[in-house]
Amino acid sequence: MDRKGSSRKRKATSTSAAASRQPQPDPATASTSGVSLSVPSSSVVNPQVRITTMPFASYVVWNNKGGTGKTTLTFQLAAEYAKRHHGKTIVVIDMCPQANVSSALLAKSNSPLNPGPVDLEGKRYVKTVCGYLLAKLERVSTEPGKTKLMNFLLKVNSTNKNIPTNVFLMCGDLYLEELSRRLEQERQLMAIGDNSPWKRVTLFIKDYVERLSQKGDFVFHRYKSFLFHLHRNGHKCCRRPNSTVHTADDFSLSAIKAMLYLVYGIQTDENDHRRSLVEHQFYQLAEAHQVNRPQLHLFVNNRVTYHTETAAAFVGIADEVKQLLNTVYEKESGIFSQEQDHLCPDLHDFHSAGVISLHTGIPISKLKQGKYRVFDKEVQVQKNINIYKADIGKIIEML
């Protein structure tokens, strides 16, 4: 997908080039506003790596902390992006073990998900992310032409008429966490020659995305809650933008630091005990198995409270996140796909409108001022709904 505006195009600046534009720091550490940064002696991002244009775009909505708004943002972005791009097929892959975004898209907040079966090579699988992953474990072919990969997807509009017709869903599954243990066992098998079980299993979802994209113009929104080992470590593995959602608390800041270390090996705390486990860290395994990692596109400051201006507590946390990211950007600009000044957009707290939107399956862009029923309660959508619509539009323009 072509990006809008040359000012926001992807950057593939090498580590050495980034350093040459700054006063030369110590090669192992850099410090800005009290933030200490340490990177491995071998560069986190290969200076020779090139970012190539692919026939599809893929965005990961991520935070390993709960309650930051991943479900809300994925739901709203997928619906609004599809509305604005009728000629593209939007695919949402729900990697949450609670299947939250699937329930929202299908408007099934109070009923079970029944996506149906998929028959492949004489075997029957459930039409969910678990069904696909189990088929991959059992060595079922996913080569285009041999397998109808669209069979694993639901056309969302068939169930929820409020969603555009070009949105498809690989449904989440409540058994995903249990399956992750089986997948992790497979990853730990001994490699034979060039056959690496770790790499094979780690790239299951990337494999699906790339093979499906060969059939048309696709945009993938992958929702990740990352509550369990395999999907926390295993599927952030394509050279695609990753959008991190955070809220105004110290725990979101810790989650961002953990992600920077886990995926890129960037240590932001001086006494980080994880260094003693370095050989088990994802960034080391990814380098050893030549697995690309995603670029960081946006850090959405979600649920920002306004009165006449942004509340002071939100400003404090947002400034700390920006200081951290500025420090990392100066040292490792190649891991970002967005200009430094555009990394941290704010998103208003949607309040009751957000709850109503997810409960009813009606995107914010379609909500109108008035009363809606949430279970046995009547809930009012206020006139400030247009502010929320503008916020979603602003994020869409940055994709």
TrEMBL record:
Transmembrane segments: none annotated. Residues 1-41 are annotated as: Disordered. Residues 1-12 have a biased composition (Basic residues). It comes from the Eukaryota. Residues 61-180 form the AAA domain. Residues 31-41 have a biased composition (Low complexity). InterPro entries: AAA_dom (IPR025669), DNA_Partitioning_ATPase (IPR050678), P-loop_NTPase (IPR027417). PANTHER family: COBYRINIC ACID AC-DIAMIDE SYNTHASE, P-LOOP CONTAINING NUCLEOSIDE TRIPHOSPHATE HYDROLASE. This is AAA domain-containing protein. It comes from Mytilus coruscus (Sea mussel).
